[in-house]
Amino acid sequence: MIVRLLSKSAAQFHKKMNSQSSSRILNAVLGLFCIFILWSVVHAATPNPGHPWTEVGDGTFQVTGPTSLRTYTLPDTNASILTNYNLNQGDLLYADAASSSARLPKDTNATRYLSNTGTNNNPLWALINLANGVTGILTSVNGGTGNGFTKFTGPTTSEKTFTLPDASASVLTSAAAVTVGQGGTGLSSLTSNGVLIGNAGSNPTFVTNTVEGQVLTASSSGAWLADYPSITASPRRLMAFYKNAGAATFTTVGTAAILTVSATSSSADDSFGAFENAATGLAANSVSGVITSNFTQVRRAWEIEYYTVIKTDPTAITSLRYWVGFFGANPDSTSTTTTNMIAFRYATDADGTSFWRAVTCVTTCATAPSITTTSVAIAANTLYKLRIVCRNVVPDCKFYINDVLAATQTVSLPAASSLLGWGNRVTTLSGAVRNIKTSRINVAHNY
Fold first, then answer.
1. Please, which pLDDT band fits residue 337 given cuts at 50, 70 and 90?
2. Exposure check for the chain: N or C terminus, fewer CB within 10 A?
3. Which residues, 6+ apart, have CB-to-CB distance to 342 below 8 Å?
4. What pLDDT is stored for residue 17 in this prediction?
5. What is the dihedral of CA 370, 373, 374, 377, to 10 degrees?
6. Do 62 and 56 touch, CB atoms closer than 8 A?
7. What residue spans define the domains of the chain?
8. DSSP state of 3
9. Which of 361, 357, 358, 360 minimizes the C-alpha distance to 348?
10. How confident is the model at residue 231 (pLDDT cuts 50, 70, 90)?
11. For 239, which DSSP code?
12. What is the DSSP string of 15-52?
């Protein structure tokens, strides 16, 4: 009985022990498996949930940045993630193709603007194109004209400055005549050779003249007229010598009959007017012409003027000498006379070219005359209007040929107080007759 009880107890104990051992083994195995799984998670290669962001990756991809928990919402679709373009200050991103982006660096120049003028019309920094890159009309407040119809042309090489009046004003144009009120005449054309006469606020009138010798004269009504000068009313004293038609004589006005006419003179009137022809003899140095009977008629200080109309020899201008003007003594003897003078000269023994000369000299004329060669040629059988005008204040003497200034002499002028006469002279330098024709002589002075 006792043996049975002991056997039964031992069997139960053994069974209980076996059951506890199996449970312990199973628990040990499960414990080891959990430890393995935990070790695998801890030492697993990235990506690995539960690792910090610095350890997320696939060996070549790594996320850095967050230092604490951050939430990033990703799109619920397949997509490419934008990359870091190494953007610098001022750079811009733009789409250079479908689902593609590019970086536009900033322009280092100042005041550049974004345009679509780049390759394939991509954005580009550029200057504003005023030809087709702007719209609207720039107002005057902003430096424009305020309209789209104003155009300026002219300057081509550099900046020019045009100063406009600081007031509202009308611009003078070539489309209309400038009015009297604007300082013009109100006329689109002027009368040839006419002298403008003021007419208050109306267009000016003209005085015209085709008669030689006439001057502007004030009438009793105050109007200006073209007429011959009045010797008695003129502030200048005028002495005139006019050749008488059909005779080899002169009519003298304003002075005594001081003009001496050579004995070899004759009437030579033609279509140009009344002329006295003075002819030399055949012998060399034979002289002819007209000249004052003395040389005490005027002084340079009186602001003298000499005007004459002559014609040259009808056949030749060779082997001769012409003197025309003011003289301190008879100039016939030489081309470099020793007398004071203010005169025109042409002398084939002294002048190398066929042009009129303007000559002035004082005392030492043989050694130091002032001679200017004009640009007016001298030819045979030709009419010339010769004028000499001397001023005392400057002083100078101007030489005109056919009413055009040909020379101005400022040196070697006779002294202001030197006494002078005048004449038109011709000298033959060889055995041939030479001529000079004179129509008129006018001498004037202020005092």
1. low
2. N
3. 300, 306, 325, 326, 359, 360, 388, 390, 397, 409, 413, 414, 420
4. 55
5. 140
6. yes
7. 237-445
8. H
9. 357
10. very low
11. E
12. HHHHHHHHHHHHHHHHHHHHHHHHHHHHTPPSS-TTS-
**Distance in angstroms (rounded) separating the CA atoms of residues 339 and 295:** 11
Closest CA to 230 of 238, 242, 222: 238
Give the whole-angstrom CA distance, residue 42 versus residue 57.
15
pLDDT for position 232: 46
Q: Mean pLDDT for the chain?
A: 83
Maximum CA pair distance of the chain? 213
Task: Name the phi and psi angles at 31, rounded to 5.
Answer: -65, -45
Provide, for the chain, the percentages of residues in helix, strand and coil under a 3-state DSSP scheme, each rounded to the nearest 5: 15, 30, 55
Q: Structure pTM? A: 0.53
The upper half-sphere exposure of residue 80, i.e. CA atoms within 13 Å in the direction of its Cβ, equals 7
At residue 438, φ and ψ (nearest 5 deg) are: -125, 130
Which class would CATH give 237-445?
A: mainly beta
Strand ranges for 232-282 from DSSP E: 237-243, 250-253, 259-261, 265-267, 276-279
Helix (H) or strand (E) holding 7: helix 2-42
CA–CA separation, 56 vs 47, rounded Å? Answer: 5
Q: How far, in Å, CA of 125 to CA of 110, rounded?
A: 10
Q: Are 388 and 397 in contact (CB under 8 A)?
A: yes
Q: For residue 140, give the 3-state DSSP assignment.
A: helix
pLDDT computed for residue 12 by the predictor = 59
In degrees to the nearest 10, what's the CA dihedral of 225, 228, 229, 232? -110
pLDDT at residue number 50:
54
Token reading at 240: 């005139």
pLDDT for 432 equals: 94
Task: Enter the tokens of residue 261.
Answer: 């006419």
Give the pLDDT band (50/70/90) at residue 401: very high
Backbone phi and psi for residue 248, each to the nearest 5 degrees, phi listed first: -95, 45
> What 8-state DSSP symbol labels residue 273?
B
Are 177 and 187 in contact, with CB atoms under 8 Å apart?
yes
3-state secondary structure of 218: strand
**Two tokens at 31?**
């414990």
- Residue 191 tokens, joined: 């009368």
Q: State which amino acid sits at residue 147.
A: N
Residue pair 117/126 in contact by the 8 Å Cβ criterion: yes
Instruction: Show Cβ contacts of residue 141 under 8 Å, excluding neighbours closer than 6 positions.
Output: none
Which of these, 288, 249, 290, lies nearest to 433 by C-alpha position? 288
Task: State residue 446 phi and psi, 5-degree precision.
Answer: -85, -20
